[in-house]
């Protein structure tokens, strides 16, 4: 069996979940195929014990400088994220070793703020990339040669793979396994790790509720919180204004001023997100999904998906839906 060497770079202040998630995916892949599909090596500056964000300690397998000086081929170079990525001294110490490692790597990847370290090493110049939503603006400002794509779970551009925060590293690792070992193994791992739906990279990092500003006015904020569970109800401006105890004009004006979007746009986004979840996780027809999220006709949902996602419901389902996997890791 072909074994792929994966070198994971850690440093002071890294986030443990950024490491544990991808490593668990790759280790589970080894178990799933009954052999060493991946050889996992952790490397730290100087080979020293690392202080994690939160106070625990981590002992790496190798010294980063030692790994950079060898001629050993690397399949995947992975830089994890964490608060240390924002510390210039820490980031610089790691970044100066990365080009030597990158020249021997088939894939160069990062989780969360690890993209900042890759960028500091010049390894994302001219590439599309993402990071945690809270760091995307910083990445774009500090490294203008990087083509930052905010709101993405992960981005794959040629030999570069970058992911958003924490759990997105699991999604990216599953995508790597998919590319290496096939969709069935990747789906099998997702089930073993109890990941409900394996998300693809084109999906957004966070929901409409998080993207929009919470209204300052309590009655409008209450409407925002009420809406996701009542998408099939009467959602006219008149009904929503009545729920908020306002006139229609005042409600519409205040909602937009405080949330950054109109009530109609907010409702459409909520319905679209609900429809996407159903397309990904159920076998319901498009017409049934449309009714479930508050549209009278499937054609309306079709138009919304076409306009907002530049695809059709059927194509979206084919691309993003979880594939049923009937085999088990330990078949009897």
Task: Provide an overview of this structure.
The protein has helices at about 15-35, 65-70, 90-95, 100, 115-120, 135-140, 165-180, 185-190, 210, 220-225, 235-245, 250-260, 265-280, 285-290, 300-310, 315-320; strands spanning about 5-10, 40-45, 50, 55-60, 60-65, 75-80, 105-110, 130, 145-150, 155, 160-165. A seven-stranded mixed beta sheet has the order 5-2-1-6-7-11-10, with helices on both faces. The protein has a two-stranded antiparallel ribbon with strand order 3-4. About 45% of the residues lie in helices and about 15% in strands. Helix 11 (about 235-245) crosses helix 12 (about 250-260). It is α/β, with parallel strands linked by helices and about 325 residues long. Helix 6 (about 135-140) links the parallel strand 8 and strand 9. The protein is globular and about 70 Å long. The protein is built from 16 helices and eleven strands. The protein starts with a strand and ends in a 12-residue tail after the last helix. The chain folds into two domains: about 5-190, Class I glutamine amidotransferase (GATase) domain (Rossmann fold), CATH 3.40.50.880; about 210-320, Arc Repressor Mutant, subunit A. Residues about 325-330 have low confidence and may be disordered. This is Helix-turn-helix domain-containing protein. InterPro entries: Class_I_gatase-like (IPR029062), DJ-1/PfpI (IPR002818), Homeodomain-like_sf (IPR009057), HTH_AraC (IPR018060), HTH_AraC-typ_CS (IPR018062), INH-QAR (IPR052158). One of its GO terms (molecular function) is sequence-specific DNA binding. It holds the Pfam family DJ-1_PfpI. Keywords: DNA-binding, Transcription, Transcription regulation.
